[in-house]
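Intended use. Records like the one below are meant for learning the mapping from a protein sequence to its folded structure. Do not use them to infer anything beyond what is encoded.
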Amino acid sequence: MARRNISIPDELDERLDRHRDRINASRICAIALERELDMIEEQTRPLEVDESQVEHLVERLLQQQDDKDKWYGRGRSDGRAWTQETATLEELRRFDQHWSGLEGMTVADFNPEDLEGWIIDLLPRAFQANELRQLPPALQGAYIFGWHEGVSNLWRAVRTRL
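Structure written out for the chain above:
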């Protein structure tokens, strides 16, 4: 069996001396060291993961991103179309004034339920339809952010000419 020397505080050594006949210090230290090493090794041991679970998770996350991209693109297209074909000058100025709070936000920060009613009214009828209302908030947010970008890009190019 290997031997090691350990250092302990003087007060602990005095207490240990008083109970030396009842305590096996080597055994207690060995148990404590084994527990500590087990904890360290458990924390550094690579997790055993079923490869099919990894593949399923990757597939699901990629699909979520594809869905967000799809709804963002649809919103952007709808925003441009609304600006080009339907929006009044008053609505665009109102958009400019009240939607500026989205600048610098990410889809993850955004909750579509926080939008005021008049803002929802500006969104195309597609958003107000059940198809979009029943989407998870993350996809609603992607659509609204896309719509915002579609309107903003065109409106920024036009407003300086008015």
